[in-house]
């Protein structure tokens, strides 16, 4: 049973590392950003509701986000562990996740904080904009997303640090090197991956 959470600024590499860690620990990677994007692409009612927030680089309202995650965590594949990427992002979402975990009689094992300085993340996001054309990767929206992160999400690091569950990982360097750092830090906490050949 491995329950992990990835936190870090936009562009820190959470999504990339989430996929790799999910494979290593054999748990589903649950990304609220991916869930929302999927719904926008497919023009679902949820997609129509969240599109304007996402395009503006604003957070989707907590009520909506919390409901999506509560549903997703009830699915069978999450019963034996999960890796949350991009949730929680607000103190309200922390409270909801706490409530969900208490109801299940479980708790988070580790919160992985991936760091990268602002120049680096802006450069990465602009590169991704050129390659993938994500609607929220324009220079102006990126700046806004970084501000929202600093205001609403960075404070969560203190909340989880107080609980003694945070490991901080330098997100600079090759993808594989960052994964290795995370795996080593998790192993130190007694969390061993089922496979390290990624
Ligand atoms: P990034 O990590 O690059 O900011 P994500 O793919 O995680 O990108 O999220 C993209 C967008 O999806 C966010 O800017 C926000 O609009 C929405 N979103 C994702 N997760 C949450 C969340 N937990 N709470 C509110 N909005 C969210």
TrEMBL record:
Q: In which pathway does it act?
A: Purine metabolism; AMP biosynthesis via salvage pathway; AMP from ADP: step 1/1
Top EC class per UniProt?
A: transferase
Provide one Gene Ontology cellular component. Answer: cytoplasm
Q: What does UniProt say about this protein's domains? A: Consists of three domains, a large central CORE domain and two small peripheral domains, NMPbind and LID, which undergo movements during catalysis. The LID domain closes over the site of phosphoryl transfer upon ATP binding. Assembling and dissambling the active center during each catalytic cycle provides an effective means to prevent ATP hydrolysis.
List, alphabetically, the InterPro entries matched: Adenylat/UMP-CMP_kin, Adenylat_kinase_CS, P-loop_NTPase
Keywords, in A-Z order: ATP-binding, Cytoplasm, Kinase, Nucleotide biosynthesis, Nucleotide-binding, Transferase
Q: What is the scientific name of the source organism?
A: Cryobacterium luteum
The similarity annotation says: Belongs to the adenylate kinase family.
Residues noted as binding ATP in the record, renumbered to the chain: 11-16, 128, 173
Nucleus recorded as keyword: no
Q: Mind telling me what this protein is named?
A: Adenylate kinase
What would be the name of the gene that encodes this protein? adk
Its biological purpose: Catalyzes the reversible transfer of the terminal phosphate group between ATP and AMP. Plays an important role in cellular energy homeostasis and in adenine nucleotide metabolism.
Q: List the SUPFAM superfamilies hit by this protein, alphabetically.
A: P-loop containing nucleoside triphosphate hydrolases
Q: What does the UniProt entry say about where the protein is found?
A: Cytoplasm
UniProt-listed PANTHER family: NUCLEOTIDE KINASE (PTHR23359)
């Amino acid at each position: 049973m491995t329950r992990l959470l990835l936190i870090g600024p936009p562009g820190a590499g959470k999504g990339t590392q989430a996929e790799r860690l999910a494979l290593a620990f054999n748990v589903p990677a649950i990304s609220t950003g991916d869930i929302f994007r999927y719904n926008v692409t497919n023009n679902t009612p949820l997609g129509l509701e969240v599109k304007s927030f996402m395009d503006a680089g604003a957070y989707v309202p907590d009520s909506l986000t919390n409901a999506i995650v509560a549903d997703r965590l009830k699915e069978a594949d999450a019963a034996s562990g999960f890796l949350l990427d991009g949730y929680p992002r607000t103190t309200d979402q922390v409270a909801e996740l706490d409530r969900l975990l208490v109801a299940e009689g479980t708790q988070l094992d580790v919160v992985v904080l991936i760091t990268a300085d602002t120049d680096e993340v802006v450069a990465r996001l602009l590169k991704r904009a050129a390659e993938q054309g994500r609607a929220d990767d324009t220079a102006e929206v990126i700046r806004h997303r970084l501000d929202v992160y600093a205001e609403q999400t960075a404070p969560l690091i203190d909340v989880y640090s107080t609980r003694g569950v945070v490991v901080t990982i330098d997100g600079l360097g090759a993808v594989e090197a960052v994964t290795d750092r995370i795996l080593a830090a998790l192993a130190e906490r007694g969390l061993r991956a089922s496979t390290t050949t990624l």
